[in-house]
Amino acid sequence: MTKRALITGITGQDGSYLADLLLEKGYKVFGLRRRTSVPIMENIQHIVNEVEFIDGDLTDLSSLIHAVKVANPDEVYNLAAQSFVGTSWDQPILTGQVTALSVTNMLEALRIVKPTARYYQASSSEMFGKVVETPQKETTPFYPRSPYGVAKVYGHWMTVNYRESYNMFACSGILFNHESPRRGIEFVTRKITDAVVKIKCGLQHELRLGNLDALRDWGYAKDYVECMWLMLQQDRPDDYVIATGETHSVREFCEIAFSHVGLDYTNYVVTDPKFFRAAEVDLLLGDPAKAINNLGWNPQKTTFKQLVHLMVDSDMEKAKRVSY
Ligand code: GDP
């Protein structure tokens, strides 16, 4: 029988890769779509006719109940959020409403309409924030350092709570930073690869960044969505850290990205206080041992260098298409 999946955040980086994966696996895919004046379809243009869209908003419980009734899903992937850490200081209440409280809306919609559906919650390494131990694993205490991180901690614990309270098959994936050509331009990785290409083409002359010494455990989003799916195929629901187990600095990312097109980043990168965070997460390094053992996850499928290169190459291809 064809499996049915409902994805929130389907137009985003992870939602679009997950939709690709589930369609490949023969799922009937439903995507929750929030109304915007201009549709944001860039990431899913290629599958727009294969996905069934349901209009709704995470902050509106009645629209979620409707979506669950229409989709009648076997699996629900809750990926929608106000997902940018920097914005969460400018819009802390909205971040709380969308990134935190909406998780309860989604869980309630499932509990009321389809409590047997399997549920995936997109949790985040930002929950570890001012890290209490290194590397961070499933048992590491949380110490979030942004309104975004605080909101994600709420969503994580609600997921655990619905599992324990109602015996629902609810899983929380604690994903460390994961990037790709579909990453939003405001995130540092894509901001760098986009600038590298523009500088190479003579369209931009410098790249203004914040903290170059921040360390992140960066993986490839396309590899990470496989783990989301794997979590929901297990015999019992659980929480997993998904990470590469390697950490690199923003500076290192710059070095590799610029040198890929024959440039030296020190000639172009300028530090700008505007891009520093009110409270920084200095170091993230995940321990993916549980995912390796239980899910058969291979954290080194795409190396850091390959990731940087494929992002630069993709931005270069896009630039060429635009200029033809
Ligand atoms: P995050 O880990 O979810 O906050 O992902 P980001 O890609 O937004 O930021 C990763 C790290 O890069 C953080 O420690 C930022 O402080 C640092 N960073 C340095 N310069 C910049 C910048 O210009 N933009 C962004 N977004 N982050 C920057």
UniProtKB/TrEMBL annotation:
<comment type="similarity">
    <text>Belongs to the NAD(P)-dependent epimerase/dehydratase family. GDP-mannose 4,6-dehydratase subfamily.</text>
</comment>
<feature type="binding site">
    <location>
        <position position="119"/>
    </location>
    <ligand>
        <name>NADP(+)</name>
    </ligand>
</feature>
<dbReference type="InterPro" id="IPR036291">
    <property type="entry name" value="NAD(P)-bd_dom_sf"/>
</dbReference>
<comment type="function">
    <text>Catalyzes the conversion of GDP-D-mannose to GDP-4-dehydro-6-deoxy-D-mannose.</text>
</comment>
<dbReference type="Pfam" id="PF16363">
    <property type="entry name" value="GDP_Man_Dehyd"/>
</dbReference>
<protein>
    <recommendedName>
        <fullName>GDP-mannose 4,6-dehydratase</fullName>
        <ecNumber>4.2.1.47</ecNumber>
    </recommendedName>
</protein>
<keyword id="KW-0521">NADP</keyword>
<dbReference type="GO" id="GO:0008446">
    <property type="term" value="F:GDP-mannose 4,6-dehydratase activity"/>
</dbReference>
<dbReference type="InterPro" id="IPR006368">
    <property type="entry name" value="GDP_Man_deHydtase"/>
</dbReference>
<feature type="domain" description="NAD(P)-binding">
    <location>
        <begin position="6"/>
        <end position="311"/>
    </location>
</feature>
<dbReference type="InterPro" id="IPR016040">
    <property type="entry name" value="NAD(P)-bd_dom"/>
</dbReference>
<keyword id="KW-0456">Lyase</keyword>
